Amino acid sequence: MEKPAMKLIDLKKTIGKNEIIKGLNFEIKSGEVFGFIGPNGAGKTTTIRMMVGLIKMSGGDVQILGKSIKNDYKEAIKEVGAIVENPEMYPFMTGMQNLIHFARMLPNVSKERIQEVISLVGLEKAIKEKVGKYSLGMRQRLGIAQALLHNPSVLILDEPTNGLDPAGIGEIRYYIRRLAEEQNVAVIISSHLLSEIELMCDRIGIIKNGELITIQNVHDAADTEQDSHQIQMEVTPAEKAMELLSTEYEIEAVLKSDLISFQSQREEIPNIIQTFVRNDISIYQVEVSRATLEEKFFDLIGENVIE
Ligand SMILES: Nc1ncnc2c1ncn2[C@@H]1O[C@H](COP(=O)(O)OP(=O)(O)OP(=O)(O)O)[C@@H](O)[C@H]1O
């Protein structure tokens, strides 16, 4: 089976006495755009900084194509491109000069690769202009081009739509989708605004207070609103239930304080319950809801995060 592009395994961060990230588990596939959503202070940046080895993990691991960031950093990080803080670009140099400058710091970036990343983010026309003249959206795209120079399998963008106007967001969306679909890159995008990135994502993971609350399939939620349901179950043992969901139904569930939550078709619910019963899993509670992604987000996060 193909290895996930990125896998978080019980990833934790404690600072002082504060448990900031409380054990995150999820996978991102190649060619998938994964939105990492949560209000300010939820723990997105801390998680992303651990994903790229900028800060130490307190527990767990992050694997890139099966390679551990913790134990095999050099090999794992070769497959990662990231914009974690605002990309450091020199405004007095052209886009091209900036890319050449960054390419020099990397092993084996050919001239052809530089041309390739320029076209991947659609900056062919502006690449000979000074970056100081670029719009914020163009600067972000140049940052993405820079992060792609070494041809990574995983691209991580922390709040790439921050401060962009709708046109800028639309452009980023177009190029991100293209990267995922045509180059098979796995893209992880964080944001505190669902509405800004929903349309560019395949799945959305919602984080609050350092915990993953739910993972939603965006297309299911949008296209088959009638059929796709959010299901929460109180089951014991929860880990076994999650494993069965994964192996028998290819459903990735999220565990939060004894409740597992996942998406499924309504018709599948009785089958899932039968599977659990056959496998000696006790079911204490089942809750089925039909909320839209937006409603779910308001519910989970609270309206205070919407600007
Ligand atoms: N070095 C640190 N020392 C103490 N607390 C920290 C430190 N770094 C982060 N935190 C705390 O950890 C929590 C998560 O912060 P983080 O920056 O990861 O959130 P975020 O989801 O990225 O939010 P934002 O969108 O505002 O950046 C916050 O409560 C923050 O105050």
**Order of H and E elements:** EEEHEEHEHHHEHEHEEHEHEEHEH
CATH topology tier name of the largest domain: Rossmann fold
Overall average residue pLDDT:
88
What Rg is obtained from the alpha carbons, in whole angstroms? 20 Å
* Alpha-beta classification: alpha/beta
The CATH C-level class name of the largest domain: Alpha Beta
At CATH's second level, what is the architecture of the largest domain? 3-Layer(aba) Sandwich
Characterization of the model:
- The longest helix is centred in the middle third of the chain and has 18 residues, at 166-183.
- The protein folds into two domains: 6-222, 3-Layer(aba) Sandwich (Rossmann fold), CATH 3.40.50; 228-290, Alpha-Beta Plaits, CATH 3.30.70.
- It is elongated and about 65 Å long.
- A hairpin with a 2-residue loop joins strand 9 and strand 10.
- By secondary structure, the protein is α/β, with parallel strands linked by helices.
- The strands form three sheets. The chain has a six-stranded mixed beta sheet, with helices on both faces.
- The protein has eleven helices and 14 strands.
- The protein has helices at residues 44-51, 73-77, 95-104, 111-120, 136-148, 166-183, 194-197, 218-223, 238-249, 268-278, 293-301, and strands spanning 6-15, 18-28, 33-37, 59-64, 67-68, 80-83, 154-158, 186-191, 203-208, 211-217, 228-236, 254-256, 259-265, 282-289.
- The chain binds adenosine-5'-triphosphate.
- The site of adenosine-5'-triphosphate has 11 residues, from helix 1.
- Residues 6-234 form the ABC transporter domain.
- GO terms for molecular function: ATP binding; ATP hydrolysis activity.
- Pfam families: ABC_tran (PF00005).
- Belongs to the ABC transporter superfamily.
- This is Putative ABC transporter ATP-binding protein YxlF.
